[in-house]
């Protein structure tokens, strides 16, 4: 399977549906009154962490995700139906980043986790809502609140308990293949592994996940070789297994190269617990093993384990060591990742112009909607609306007649608005 660890996608939640303008019209019931229902809420954009996925490859082919808009309200006080949500299924360990590729907006670390990332716009009120003692037959309605839209980056950081590190050809993929059911490509040339592989190690009742990532070379942090971008995948692991090819002439130089790259990468990688493995022991003479082990122990100041991924020598001991550390670490801190709070933009305050009018904008710095006038919607503002059924329009004419003849004729020219905005034609 192809591995893709980042993708840019466009998300949009559904607009709210417009409210309806309708009047009750029945035989023998004169001036039946407004009965236009409210519009439905737009669908949300939901992000869900799904088990069994380990790539964002799907998002290379489809990049636009739009939730359905809310349905419009109807006569007889029927409210519009809610728009359907759009659900993005992503692998566990996916982060959602802002367009700047730095700000983490959402972090999905557990299977089944669901976040409403962009909320659908609320539906607008139908004319039944605008009925007041002074305007008993309003033709006003609200067009509904717009959905939110945003370009974001999806970035996958695999969550493995243990990360395999080493120079190309150190035998990382061979180790993964020997200890798990994974079948990574193995060959005696550098950069055989081009993308991370995950495998589950089963040790008795226990299991843990290890990640095999492409080999690092000197200068990886400057982009040499495949660079260090795959190090992100072991950033979240609890322990690193640093494999060193025992057949190399200078094992200490191999060790230092990787340690330097970890330090250059930053984050907490260089401080992570590390098990050092002198690998390919089957191809070494006993005195070579002793000599190289001693040199590495001196350079690292830590115990060095001797193993051979090819023959299985020493492998169980290494797994046991990894498992012990992982278990201790899980007992101390069940969750390695502290997910930052999701940031989402609230809808504009009711009674203000929609951003579509070019008058209100979300200001990221103040965290508020800015601009826009404090005025209500007039039906004149709306070119098209919820006037779906022709006969309901006629009802509106009766309503004007009623207004003019009504006892509160002197109040003509202002409607139920608190701000007293003049009505059209006033
Ligand atoms: N003798 C011996 N050879 C090994 C051992 N482990 C791996 N090899 C050989 O070393 C070569 C590289 O092995 P890989 O497992 O592909 O190494 P890698 O670290 O994954 O390499 P990259 O993916 O390029 O970073 C292959 O030819 C393996 O057969 C071992 O324990 N003993
Ligand atoms: Mg490999």
UniProtKB/TrEMBL annotation:
<feature type="compositionally biased region" description="Basic and acidic residues">
    <location>
        <begin position="354"/>
        <end position="364"/>
    </location>
</feature>
<dbReference type="InterPro" id="IPR006073">
    <property type="entry name" value="GTP-bd"/>
</dbReference>
<feature type="binding site">
    <location>
        <begin position="212"/>
        <end position="215"/>
    </location>
    <ligand>
        <name>GTP</name>
    </ligand>
</feature>
<feature type="binding site">
    <location>
        <begin position="279"/>
        <end position="282"/>
    </location>
    <ligand>
        <name>GTP</name>
    </ligand>
</feature>
<comment type="function">
    <text>An essential GTPase which binds GTP, GDP and possibly (p)ppGpp with moderate affinity, with high nucleotide exchange rates and a fairly low GTP hydrolysis rate. Plays a role in control of the cell cycle, stress response, ribosome biogenesis and in those bacteria that undergo differentiation, in morphogenesis control.</text>
</comment>
<feature type="domain" description="Obg">
    <location>
        <begin position="1"/>
        <end position="159"/>
    </location>
</feature>
<dbReference type="InterPro" id="IPR006074">
    <property type="entry name" value="GTP1-OBG_CS"/>
</dbReference>
<dbReference type="InterPro" id="IPR036726">
    <property type="entry name" value="GTP1_OBG_dom_sf"/>
</dbReference>
<dbReference type="InterPro" id="IPR014100">
    <property type="entry name" value="GTP-bd_Obg/CgtA"/>
</dbReference>
<feature type="domain" description="OBG-type G">
    <location>
        <begin position="160"/>
        <end position="327"/>
    </location>
</feature>
<comment type="similarity">
    <text>Belongs to the TRAFAC class OBG-HflX-like GTPase superfamily. OBG GTPase family.</text>
</comment>
<dbReference type="Pfam" id="PF01926">
    <property type="entry name" value="MMR_HSR1"/>
</dbReference>
<feature type="binding site">
    <location>
        <begin position="191"/>
        <end position="195"/>
    </location>
    <ligand>
        <name>GTP</name>
    </ligand>
</feature>
<keyword id="KW-0547">Nucleotide-binding</keyword>
<feature type="compositionally biased region" description="Acidic residues">
    <location>
        <begin position="365"/>
        <end position="419"/>
    </location>
</feature>
<dbReference type="InterPro" id="IPR027417">
    <property type="entry name" value="P-loop_NTPase"/>
</dbReference>
<dbReference type="Pfam" id="PF01018">
    <property type="entry name" value="GTP1_OBG"/>
</dbReference>
<dbReference type="InterPro" id="IPR006169">
    <property type="entry name" value="GTP1_OBG_dom"/>
</dbReference>
<feature type="region of interest" description="Disordered">
    <location>
        <begin position="122"/>
        <end position="142"/>
    </location>
</feature>
<feature type="binding site">
    <location>
        <begin position="166"/>
        <end position="173"/>
    </location>
    <ligand>
        <name>GTP</name>
    </ligand>
</feature>
<feature type="binding site">
    <location>
        <position position="173"/>
    </location>
    <ligand>
        <name>Mg(2+)</name>
    </ligand>
</feature>
<keyword id="KW-0342">GTP-binding</keyword>
<feature type="binding site">
    <location>
        <position position="193"/>
    </location>
    <ligand>
        <name>Mg(2+)</name>
    </ligand>
</feature>
<dbReference type="InterPro" id="IPR045086">
    <property type="entry name" value="OBG_GTPase"/>
</dbReference>
<keyword id="KW-0460">Magnesium</keyword>
<feature type="binding site">
    <location>
        <begin position="308"/>
        <end position="310"/>
    </location>
    <ligand>
        <name>GTP</name>
    </ligand>
</feature>
<protein>
    <recommendedName>
        <fullName>GTPase Obg</fullName>
        <ecNumber>3.6.5.-</ecNumber>
    </recommendedName>
</protein>
<keyword id="KW-0479">Metal-binding</keyword>
<dbReference type="InterPro" id="IPR031167">
    <property type="entry name" value="G_OBG"/>
</dbReference>
<keyword id="KW-0963">Cytoplasm</keyword>
<feature type="region of interest" description="Disordered">
    <location>
        <begin position="332"/>
        <end position="426"/>
    </location>
</feature>
<keyword id="KW-0378">Hydrolase</keyword>
<comment type="subunit">
    <text>Monomer.</text>
</comment>
